[in-house]
């Protein structure tokens, strides 16, 4: 008798609905079969850390700031900021993009953590009308994001991240910072994001098709958020910035992260759902993603944490099997111009 296709991988938490997944007779998925051993993951992580530390050493003291930190007030970027300041003694400018859904607690955390660390802090809030259109279109227009992007995050998150990445590069050029740091953790982005040299002109050329698509979909204001001005690019002294994601170079359990940042006065938000510690729109992104693609947008990241031994499988399963209900998110839907059933409201 043929074995029944498992609902989820018996080793990690990837479901049968995940794009391109295969299972062996024991119900172990192709991602688990291809995964490197724990030992080689640890070696690779150490190599990434050495590379990152070399880049940090070479960058210190080169600009007005050493590093622009994409700082959301959430737990991972708070941990990242303290590590850059305390462990690596970088002169950081923490930049928060207020997307209109930043929880009050996250806003407080931004101030508390940057004050405790003695870090300069900047909050930038794009116009709510633009943000509403961007988010609404991301979930109602089909195929805004590539199939590869969809595996790792919801359409709402992908659009927002793309905008934030562009803004961080802009801030880095304006403030002459050679480094941009993010708080990505394992599984959220490919490993090469631990240390990534950006050739700015080449990068803008590569991104152009997707950025033009954003402009078509989100309106002319998108040009301002998704493109870096040529004149700005040309004033850059060497045309390069380096992106670092220090958390990809360490193996940390969530409890260790929380202990460290709580000592700085950081406190968890109560209104951001289970998967975010700063954004009240995140659950809307998850609910639409599940509805449209049949899997939870955090499942790849949680599967990787389970494989790495950083999260118990039962905990990860519990997190991906509870899908937020759009009916409980009516205020957020209204703020982006959607009706309670998720369809676009008439103008
Ligand atoms: Zn698996």
Keywords:
2 domains; binds zinc ion; alpha/beta; 347 residues; single chain; 48% helix; Rossmann fold; 8% strand
What kind of sheet is the major sheet?
A: 6 strands, mixed
CATH topology of the largest domain: Rossmann fold
Sketch the topology as an H/E string, one letter per element: HHEHEHEHHHEEHHHEHHHHH
| CATH superfamily (homologous) name of the largest domain | HUPs
Biggest β-sheet: strands ordered side by side in the sheet: 3-2-1-4-6-5
The count of helical stretches stands at 15
| Fraction of residues in helix | 40-55%
**Overall tally of structural domains:** 2
Architecture of the largest domain, CATH level 2?
Answer: 3-Layer(aba) Sandwich
Instruction: Specify the structural class.
Output: alpha/beta
Question: Could you explain the architecture of this structure?
Answer:
By secondary structure, the protein is α/β, with parallel strands linked by helices. The protein has two domains: 1-35, no CATH class; 39-335, HUPs (Rossmann fold, 3-Layer(aba) Sandwich), CATH 3.40.50. It is built from 15 helices and six strands. The longest helix has 22 residues, at 38-59. The radius of gyration is 20 Å and the shape is globular. The termini are far apart. Zinc ion (ZN) is lined by residues 9, 11-12, 14, 28-29, 31-32, 303.
């Amino acid at each position: 008798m043929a074995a029944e296709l498992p609902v989820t991988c018996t080793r990690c938490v990837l479901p049968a609905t995940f794009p391109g997944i295969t299972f062996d007779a024991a119900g172990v998925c192709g991602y688990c079969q291809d995964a490197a051993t724990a030992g080689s993951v640890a070696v690779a992580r150490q190599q990434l850390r050495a590379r990152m530390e070399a880049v940090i050493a070479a960058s210190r003291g080169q600009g007005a700031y050493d590093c622009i930190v994409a700082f959301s007030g959430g737990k991972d970027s708070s941990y990242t900021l303290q590590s850059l300041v305390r462990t690596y003694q970088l002169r950081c400018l923490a930049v928060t993009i207020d997307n209109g859904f930043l929880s009050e607690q996250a806003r407080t955390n931004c101030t508390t953590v940057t004050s405790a660390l003695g870090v300069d802090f900047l909050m930038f809030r794009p116009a709510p009308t633009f943000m509403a259109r961007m988010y609404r279109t991301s979930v109602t227009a089909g195929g805004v994001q590539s199939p590869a992007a969809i595996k790792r995050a919801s359409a709402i998150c992908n659009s927002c991240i793309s905008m934030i990445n562009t803004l961080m590069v802009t801030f880095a050029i304006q403030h002459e910072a050679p480094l941009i740091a993010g708080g990505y953790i394992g599984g959220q982005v490919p490993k090469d994001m631990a240390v990534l040299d950006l050739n700015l002109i080449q990068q803008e050329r590569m991104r152009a098709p997707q950025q033009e698509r954003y402009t078509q979909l989100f309106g002319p204001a998108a040009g301002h958020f998704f493109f870096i001005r040529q004149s700005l690019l040309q004033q850059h002294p060497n045309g390069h910035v380096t992106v670092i994601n220090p958390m990809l170079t360490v193996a940390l359990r969530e409890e260790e992260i929380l202990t460290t940042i709580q000592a700085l006065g950081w406190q968890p938000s109560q209104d951001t759902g289970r998967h975010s510690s700063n954004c009240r729109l995140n659950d809307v992104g998850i609910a639409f993603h599940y509805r449209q693609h049949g899997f939870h947008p955090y499942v790849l990241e949680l599967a990787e944490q389970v494989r790495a031994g950083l999260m118990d499988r039962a905990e990860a399963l519990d997190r991906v099997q509870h899908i937020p209900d759009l009916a409980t998110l009516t205020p957020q839907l209204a703020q982006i111009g959607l009706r309670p059933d998720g369809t676009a409201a008439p103008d």
